[in-house]
């Protein structure tokens, strides 16, 4: 770093009079030093994860299942007992979330409809083992393996929120035959999906804070550098990670302020990243905004109903892009919520509405 700063000083002409040749040499030196610095950053791996249950790692306190590759997934159940359930949901939490997140549906409605729900810490979050090969496909297969380990039957319902919806898209692509239905709440969009109109994607991308734009660029184009980029402090990084994103919706802003004031945001972050922020937050960013192996807008119609809820005042997911995604897939039942932001779990009664939409009609929902 000292050598880079020295080169910068010389290139800016702080060392006295210089000719054009000297300036060119100084500029070349600056570029060379910058390249050397970036190469060192790329070769420097992120810290090793502190795996739950391993020596020196956090303790295991949650119920967990063991997957075929030896990893463990931590999970939390809610609703009616799984043995008595008519409908079974596997829930994928959002960015910075955990197995303790859910649809926030009332116990009364869950019992009325006979709904069992299981949420899990996605790989690298909370008490689920990291997966260095995490992908959209692996997220979907984790849902399937969890369902099988818990004996949820031939088919289950996949539900996701925010960034966790990449697992639902993955399930619609890789295991549609295992789905009885799917629901996504404020699903995050990858600006590089081929089906996104280039002009609209560029316009909405440019509305983000500069630090968010750069964080997503690095996630997409140079994922190996993301841990370094997010750790450096001389250029702006993600406001989403820092919980400082501008939220235009009043309820969203009030919810975040309240969670910050009572320490909930800090506790959630500590729990989510206890095995390492690279294996949770940063891995999420490279998977969500990296190069997908398929375009969600090119998916064939699945053999099950699919619902998508989106607020029209979402400060994290552009509603105009979401309208395009949903409009490109005639089999998606799109529900736009007026005057609503991104934090849909805070919308009174929405969890119950989701359950009633999925299971309220025997013709629309089959028990599995």
From TrEMBL:
Source organism phylogeny: Eukaryota, Viridiplantae, Streptophyta, Embryophyta, Tracheophyta
Domain AB hydrolase-1: 88-344
Residue stretches spanning the membrane: none
PANTHER family (UniProt xref): HYDROLASE, ALPHA/BETA FOLD FAMILY PROTEIN, EXPRESSED-RELATED, HYDROLASE, ALPHA_BETA FOLD FAMILY PROTEIN, EXPRESSED
UniProt-recorded name of the protein: AB hydrolase-1 domain-containing protein
InterPro entries in UniProt: AB_hydrolase_1, AB_hydrolase_fold
SUPFAM superfamilies, sorted: alpha/beta-Hydrolases
Organism name: Miscanthus lutarioriparius
